[in-house]
């Protein structure tokens, strides 16, 4: 391991206030020896994109951005940081929505910190077609994994609107579900093995394609959803799935949320497989239409449901019969999968919302029991209309698993906490969760008590203390 005893003080910390150069310069020199000069970024222009999250709401400060290429380099980087007390923010595609992928803002201290980016760790192994799995590095994107799987006639069980930039490490770290959650489960359900670097630099490798392997604790599942607070995920062994031979996509404008729920239940009762089920509102569809996407149906409605259905026989005819028999449907359109134009009405929401708000959007990813969806949608749609904290709510989400993406536009920054508190109060009253799939990050730390009692939180803190006793990994995330 390179020595820290170097006379060259190197560049001062970037965007992080005054520091004692001797505290960090020797470490930066050692990190350059590990990953190469070009992969230790300290220039303000070069690091800016790593210090601001996708929403623009969260901005952090760091002494450097370090971009390792291999698990071995990650191990050496973390070991050096552990010896030197350097805090580490782990970052994948930086598509997170809760501030967990950027370092904390300056706090007036001289504690040095780095961003460890997996942007260069993009390798994807050859597909094991017998075991139906593939090993990938943490920086491989969801789209690239699915493309590699498709070359062997398989597919990746996770799909997200951010598929071009969301990475394997980030998906696992937040236990993302995405649009295929109703059919395939969340990220934890897709993991066969994992490789990760612990806080002292040691490498944990649980890597097997065995369908059954019940030796001790399920450590891969523990790391899934841990948001980089327990270890740095470097590689994942994902299970792959066989795509349906035939599928059709339907979008229907409907009168009530209950109609969408009934349609999903009727599809299952009819022997069809629901591959995806999404719910949108007229406000959201109108916004997407204003930004260049076609409206999915000729006749609008208060709500829209998108379902992708698969099965045997004439799927399109079966879907058409199902739509005709379901009460509350105003208008509907069918297209063979993948039906990207229909999906665009749903996937265009995030970009249209971001462009339409005069302030950074308050994005709250929540879930409620499916039976509570109608009431929750009604209550959440009224947030911002009572004058206490005026804003424009746009709701959409995965109706099949009770996941609602609450987007609050034009929220004055001074009201962001109050409006968040109002939303989470509604969620708690409906028996829901303040985090469905994006994690807690920094944004939701103050509200974790709504979903976990004191004993639960203490147990999680004990696990954190055991694996990261110095608190160097993703400080401020999950626990504050």
TrEMBL record:
Similarity comment text for this entry: Belongs to the FAD-binding oxidoreductase/transferase type 4 family.
Any matching Pfam family: FAD-oxidase_C
Cofactor(s) this protein requires: FAD
Protein name, per record: FAD/FMN-containing dehydrogenase
Origin superkingdom: Bacteria
Gene3D superfamilies given in the database record: 3.30.465.10, 3.30.70.2190, 3.30.70.2740, Uridine Diphospho-n-acetylenolpyruvylglucosamine Reductase, domain 2, Vanillyl-alcohol Oxidase, Chain A, domain 4
Record key words, sorted: FAD, Flavoprotein, Oxidoreductase
Keyword Oxidoreductase among record annotations: yes
FAD-binding PCMH-type domain sequence ranges: 58-243
InterPro entries: FAD-bd_oxidored_4_C, FAD-bd_PCMH, FAD-bd_PCMH-like_sf, FAD-bd_PCMH_sub1, FAD-bd_PCMH_sub2, FAD-linked_Oxase-like_C, FAD-oxidored/transferase_4, Oxid_FAD_bind_N
Region annotation (Disordered) ranges: 1-22
PANTHER family in UniProt: D-2-HYDROXYGLUTARATE DEHYDROGENASE, MITOCHONDRIAL
GO biological process per UniProt: respiratory electron transport chain
Gene Ontology molecular function: FAD binding; oxidoreductase activity
